[in-house]
Amino acid sequence: xxxxxxxxxxxxxxAVEDYLERILELIxxxxxxxxxxxxxxxxxxxxxxxxxxxxxxxxGLLHYEKYRGLVLTTAGEALARNITRRHQLLTDFLKLxxxxxxxxxxxxxxxxxxxxxxxxxxxxxxxxxxxRQPALLAKVCKQTHEN
Length: 147
Ligand code: MN
Description:
- By secondary structure, the protein is mostly helical.
- It has 2 domains: 3-72, Arc Repressor Mutant, subunit A (Orthogonal Bundle), CATH 1.10.10; 84-146, Diphtheria Toxin Repressor, domain 2.
- It contains 7 helices and 2 strands, in the order αααββαααα.
- A two-stranded antiparallel ribbon has the order 1-2.
- A hairpin with a 3-residue loop joins strand 1 and strand 2 (69-72).
- Helix 4 (74-96) packs across helix 6 (117-132).
- The radius of gyration is 18 Å and the shape is elongated.
């Protein structure tokens, strides 16, 4: 069924994005990303991580060698940087509104997979504009935290 197939494909690409995002984060903070670190970070079994990492290797997004760890390919790093950028822009926007850090993280982890480039761009512009208009921002924050 086409609809089911589309949904499965979307879910798969969301998982791919989560993996790439986390791998880049590990590489940036620790200098490397091992299966054991990814498993710990995503709270997924090492066997599942190994399967996914082999799949991502097959798709040309990273190079994986057992016992030697993995490196992102140019394509994999581009995707990882893109999802990281979406995460950062959405986080900047919600932080500006004074929302709770935990709520922000949870919401951004969902939103980042679904947001289109035009909507992300609009949010980026809105964020920069709000930063330049403290009075308006204060009004928005006040109303957000009422009730
Ligand atoms: Mn994220």
